[in-house]
Specification:
The chain is mainly alpha-helical and 52 residues long. The chain has a domain at 22-52. It is built from two helices and no strands. The relative contact order is 0.08.
Length: 52
Amino acid sequence: MCIVVTFISITMATAVALFEKILQNAVDMISDCKALDCQPGDILEYVHDEQK
């Protein structure tokens, strides 16, 4: 029983840490877009002219 509780606790802690990182990346992208006056999709879809 103790092993199951430990496994669930570790799994939940990992999920929370991953979710926190994903949210922080989204906040960073929104801040970058506000500074550059663009939409998040503009950053994700940007292709340099020389690569076309």
